[in-house]
Amino acid sequence: MKMLVVYTYPNHKSLNYAFSQQVMKGSKENANIKGIQMLDLYEDGFNPLLVFNEQKRRRDMHIDPELEKYRQQIKWADKLVFIYPIWWGRPPAMLLGYIDQMFASNFAYKDKKGLFPEGLLKGKSVVCISTMKGPTNYPMLWLNNAHKILMKKALFNFVGIKKVKFFEFGNMESPRGNHSKKLEKIYQYFQKIDK
After folding, report:
1. Which tens digits make up the pLDDT trace of 139-156?
2. How many Cβ atoms sit within 10 Å of the Cβ of residue 103?
């Protein structure tokens, strides 16, 4: 299994970064994982802004040379791991900008006759690790599971990815947030995961 970790947080002294390090540590100890790439969207200087004009057309995003490196990473990976905070009930704009550009028509899906397109990323799987200030059940109870619906149904299922695992960690700004226990849970998961 080859794994791409997409880290989206602007501070390396953060809990999100600690989660990324636990993912890497557990994965490096897992014989089932044959290769790991880490993409830090902030450190890499990824531009989340969409630009469409005479030179850059939306229908050509799947062949935009500026995005080729990122497309190759997604093609290479069997498993995509996203690490990010939940702000205002959804992932940060940086990650959404990456999604807007990378999960483009003719790369991640292809329109066909009928109601739904053909997902072109079949066979891949996803793990989403997210943190939030509010309680863990907040997205489910107050937002009708908007975060999971956005990521799983509106995005990953749409492009053919059916296996999606979520770790939503709440109360992360509280000293009673059980940070060590949650970090250990992520380490253990990636140390043992087999597909």
Report:
1. 555 555 778 888 998 899
2. 20
First to last CA, the chain: 7
pLDDT in tens, 115-137: 888 999 999 999 999 998 755 66
Residues 6+ apart with CB under 8 A from 143: 89
> At 159, phi and psi to the nearest 5?
-100, 10
Q: What are phi and psi of 36, to 5 degrees?
A: -135, 135
Give which of 83, 86, 96 is closest to 143, Cα–Cα.
Answer: 86
Q: Specify the higher pLDDT residue, 150 or 96.
A: 96
pTM above 0.90, yes or no: yes
Read off the amino acid at residue 128.
Answer: C
Half-sphere exposure of 108 (CA within 13 A, CB side): 22
The span from the CA of 101 to the CA of 85, in Å, is: 20
DSSP secondary structure code for residue 12 in this structure: T
Tokens 């450190």: give the residue: 43
Closest CA to 41 of 75, 4, 79, 90: 4
Collapsed DSSP state (helix, strand, coil) of residue 170: coil
Q: Could you tell me the two tokens for 47?
A: 């531009």
